[in-house]
Structures are given as structure tokens and as C-alpha cells.
User: Fold this.
Amino acid sequence: MSALPGFMELLGLTIERADAEEALVRMDVPAALMSPFGAVHGGFIAALLDTSLGVALHRRLGPADRIATHNLNVTYVAFSREQLLFCRTRVLSLRQAIAIAEGEVTTSDGTLVAKALGTFGVAARRGGGYPTSESLDGPRLAVDQVHRRPPDRDGEDQVGHVPRKGAGVEVDHRPDERHREIRVVPRARA
Assistant:
């Protein structure tokens, strides 16, 4: 995605930093987002967290991949009358279809305002992110059957695929940056 979504400007959001480790998003809270009691409205703090978690995830995906929030659990710790907030987020787990990320919102002096844990659906698109059977060298299967598992503590592959009865398949291991790819390929017939 090249251009930032328009809602980021409306909410006063700026990406300060985003790399493979974490994202830092700044929120210059517009006066209209303050509650009648003088604190930043909690719904907009949740929007800051949700958006920042998404930024952290997108840094780990391909440009064509998409995510959608499945669950966002926000714990509010303190009110903020300060209209400058920072949200630091990091990805805890990234799988083929599900990702989990966490984040926290602080004021400019470091006071913790809220923490969040989010679960996201991941939709990999051709041209980025998780490989598809077309992106691997081998015959295309009718159904994309790529499974990614992290190596176990000894660096060994974890195999979790159980082929359908009579499917005639084998498992092909290929190393990746952080994961092992397990691809189902047609078995050579004798």
C-alpha cells in the first residue's frame, strides 16, 4: 500500500517508525476527539492501537497481503488529558492465516495509558507474503496447500500435514528466513 488511508489524517496519526521488529505511531489528538470530561476518548485510543498493530503486521507481510482485525482486547490504565500520544507495537506471532500483535499507548512523558492484544486474519495475495503453490518451483495443485511452521527449538522441521486418504502426496521442506515451508506435491507414480 503506497498511500496512507485518509482516516489516519483525520485521527492525527503519523507513522514515526516501522521496521521488522516494531512500529511506533504518533497521535496528535484533534480537539474533537476529546471526551466532554477533558480526556482523550477511549474509542480513539482503541483506534490508535488497532491501526498501529496493523502497521506492525504490514511490515512483515507482502504489499498485496491484507489483514482484518478479529479481536482487539484493550485494557485502559490511565486517562490522558495530553493530546500527544505514542503507540509502540510488535508482532508476537505470524502464521499463514492468523497473526497476534501487542501494543501500548503512552503519553510523551512515558505514562502508560492503555495496552492491547490483537488477533488478525491474514489473507495472502499473489505477489507478496506467504508463498503459494505457484510461487514455488513445482506443479500447481488444485488447492493451495502451503503450510508454514516455525522450526522447533533444535532447528528441526515440524511436520503437521496429514494427507487425505489416497491423495498420493509427499512433504517437501524448504528453508525460509524464519520458517520452514511444507509443500504438498504430487507423488511420482511408478
Summary: Strands lie at 13-18, 23-28, 66-76, 84-94, 98-107, 112-123, 146-149, 169-175, 180-186. The chain has two helices and nine strands.
